[in-house]
Amino acid sequence: MNQYGFKVFFYTPELDRNVLSMDQLMLQGYTVKVNGEKCQIYPMFSTPISNIKNDVTGLTKDEEIGERGRRIVINDSSVHEGYKADYLNAYFENLNMSSMEPDWNIMIIRAIEFHDFSNCKSLLDMLEDAEYALKYKHELETKFEEMVKWFLINSLGINTRSVHP
User: Domain residues of the chain, as ranges?
Assistant: First the structure.
């Protein structure tokens, strides 16, 4: 038993998932607050907030923070949609080719495969030319995400969790 009255087991062959260790969380700087059967974990350098309901809104502090964050995302998404529309309009206006003529640069970018770091360097070299990177931004973004995924899985061996965009 540890100081919280919980039994601590470090290895359980029957489990196929990771379990939390309060001791390890605290060693990593997390704040762990135990109240009866409820346990709350707070990130490093943050302080637990009092989760009392506001008389005016009827929401707890956590819910108010979540609602404020949701509103910010909704407001930002309309701004981002405007940027996206402007970018797409400019992109298609700058294309100087007929619909029948293939763009060899796009074909080259799409053909890049990642097997070692030289392939990564080739893609990064393409990004050094600002005009080129702007003209083929969408294709390069897609290929860059593919490169990062390859690096995380093959070089760092991270394949047990999702890869963030």
Answer: 99-165
